[in-house]
Amino acid sequence: MKNLSKKALALVLALALMAALALAAFAKPRQCEEKLFFQSGDYSICYEVVPAKGEQVGRIFFLHGMVSSTVYWEELAGLFSQAGYMCAMMDFPGFGYSTRESRDITPKDREEIAAELMEFLAPGGAWIVAGHSMGGGVALNLVLLYPEKVSALLLYAAAGGGGGPPGGMAGLDPELMGRIMTPLLRPLLFMPLVVHLLAGAANADLRYGMRYDIGKIVDPLKLPGTVKSLFYMSQRSMGTDLEAAALLEIPILLLWAENDYVVSGAMAESLTAALPNAQVQTMRGGHMFTEQFSQEVFERSMAFLGGHGL
Fold first, then answer.
1. Which of 56, 116, 201, 258 could bond 52 through an S-S bridge, CB–CB 3.0 to 4.6 Å?
2. Beta strand pairing status for 43-50 and 58-63?
3. What span, in angstroms and rounded, lies between the C-alpha atoms of 235 and 300?
4. Over the chain, what is the mean pLDDT?
5. So what's the pLDDT on residue 116?
6. Please, which contacts does 215-219 make with residues 24 or more away whose CB atoms are closer than 8 Å?
């Protein structure tokens, strides 16, 4: 019964996330005034850099999860910056303020775009790569494809399959689904309570969800074409070769949350088993624990990095 309840909640969360994406296309987006943009093929990629405070001891590249953006990392990146790490983060195509996927875009893997931006920011340098949820799968792909660019992985509630959306959407026509789903779900745009409840459910903390600044989620999703982009992403996302990942010898931290209803227990167990050389930890919180408990995540991550001379 407990497992069934978790599966039902995960399904509700997934549907609600899709709803938020569909609704966002009708509202006017807030401008991305403090961000930077990097051109990669047809994609204009929004990114942010937080310089190291004092002497730089390393650099960390952050990859966000589904229905998120660079804003998710601001608190954690600020802590790492104070500790001497240069921090950079990017909005994946289709999220934040980066180009939306469409039939007019020549597809390019997120991993390739990230590697290009990393090289642009630090030519010839290697990065510690941090990934949350969907970003965790992309982080694994990144080190498999560009091992010279990654010195260590910080995987927070990682979705190890590459981060494609749930429900078998890969076979659906993105143009058709975009036209159907967006107007059907528009009424929820006027129900901010729903977004607060979603944030609370995702983090297993209703009070936190009711206090959460939902503009951090909704504002970037107001750009046109977001829901259609989600369906294109489901077709263009790269899966993760877990057999190859099992051979990785770089330092890897796998940090899970006790009450994560988004990344299922089976998914967590599968990824943990696939990375026998990783250091595995579990801490309080739900799926958004890296944001709610950023200080504890920072301290655990720093202890891990310190133990590896990073």
1. 56
2. unpaired
3. 35
4. 86
5. 98
6. 215/30, 216/69, 216/71, 216/72, 217/20, 217/67, 217/68, 218/20, 218/24, 218/27, 219/29, 219/30
- What contacts 51, CB < 8 A, 6 or more positions away? 81, 86
- Output the CA–CA distances (angstroms, integers) from residue 304 to 119, 203, 283, in the order listed: 25, 24, 14
The pair phi, psi for residue 307, each rounded to 5°, is -70, -15
H helix or E strand, kind and range, residue 267: helix 265-274
Using CA atoms, how far apart are residues 290 and 73, in angstroms rounded to an integer?
Answer: 8
Whether 89 and 62 have beta carbons less than 8 Å apart is answered as: yes
pLDDT for 221:
73
Point out which residues pair with 50 in neighbouring strands.
Answer: 87
Q: How confident is the model at residue 185 (pLDDT cuts 50, 70, 90)?
A: low
Residue pointed to by tokens 């549907």: 15
For 161, the token pair is 């399959």
Q: How far apart are CA 192 and CA 51, in angstroms?
A: 34
3-state helix, strand, coil in the chain (%, to 5): 50, 15, 35
pLDDT of 204 > 70? The answer is: yes
pLDDT band per the 50, 70, 90 thresholds, residue 169 = low
**What pTM was computed for the model?**
0.87
Q: Are 241 and 144 contacting, i.e. CB atoms less than 8 angstroms apart?
A: yes
Count the neighbouring beta carbons within 10 Å of the beta carbon of residue 167: 12
| Complete domains list, the chain, with CATH | 2-307 (3.40.50.1820)
* Kind plus residue range of the DSSP H or E element containing 132: strand 127-132
CA dist., res. 10 & res. 263, Å (int): 8
Tokens matching residue 102? 């469409």
What does R_g of the chain's alpha carbons equal in angstroms?
A: 18
> How many residues make up the chain in this entry?
310
Residue with tokens 């993105």: 174
CA dist 51 and 7 (Å) reads 41
